[in-house]
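Batch manifest line 320
LIGAND: PBG
JOB: complex structure
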Amino acid sequence: MSYPATRLRRLRRTSALRDLARETTLSVDDLVMPLFVAPEALPNERLPGLGRHTVEGVVREVEELVRLGVPAVILFGVPEEKDEDGSGAWIEDGIVQRALRALRPRFPELVLMTDVCLCEYTSHGHCGVVDGDDVRNDPTLDLLARASVSLARAGVDIIAPSDMMDGRVAAIRQALDQAGLANTPILSYAAKFASGFYGPFREAADSAPQFGDRRSYQMDGANLREAMREIEADIEEGADMIMIKPAMPYLDVIAAARDRFDSPLAAYQVSGEYAMIEAAARNKWIDRERVMMESLVSIRRAGASIIVTYYAQEAAKLLG
Ligand code: PBG
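JOB STATUS: finished
ARTIFACT:
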């Protein structure tokens, strides 16, 4: 049937009709807020979601998030000191470990995730062990596994490795199981692209590589089929959930992954995506709230059920 029998505008006439016909919903239950923990607070006026908090500051932030119904946070750490091996990632009293110990008893229902990667903790800023110009794969696995066990012991609910080393999901799974932490799930940043959209994050987390770039371990942005292989490998290695990152420039990858895999699927609306919306809104070129919500719905429509976003708190206010 076609026009005039079919008139697609019939269901757009009123707000209630549009609500009934809506295919995709966004709920506060889908959102994860990233938070940066550091020895000293460093507010970010232009991009408030990228500010650093002390352990006490993180507790206050989380109080507000929990009040708004945000179910989960993902923690990143900026350590006091960096070294070659990124030991700040796995030491007993690491900054994220301390934050977890402060948060866990206060917020028993909150889903606590931690990003597992070495780049914030290494003096060279790479996500793995460096030998000359080479970022070595296999020697890095052991360090990631140590960090994961240490974070799980400190009370984390979900371990989220973001380094893109081959074999890290299997290494982390094995280490967790051996440590008696068989119930700790892994959310793998399975398809993480080498992206210019991480710029503002690297400033916030002080994690920019001191030489070269991350193209020898993060994925080439031109490759969708390779992304499917990355996801497949991580699921085979034991990933409980998978993530694609960035989100908006890679909606096709999200859609393809949703089509192909049955694991819970997350997407990370990264710092550069957030910064672009903020900058355009500050110039009054776009309507900030409207574009924020539209961007989040687009990620859900592509097929992600979980969205990591610096807008989690604000979107929760609008959704509530
Ligand atoms: C750590 C990590 C990065 C991001 C999340 N985890 C930075 C990177 O890979 O350089 C980026 C998140 C964002 O831009 O918001 N490896």
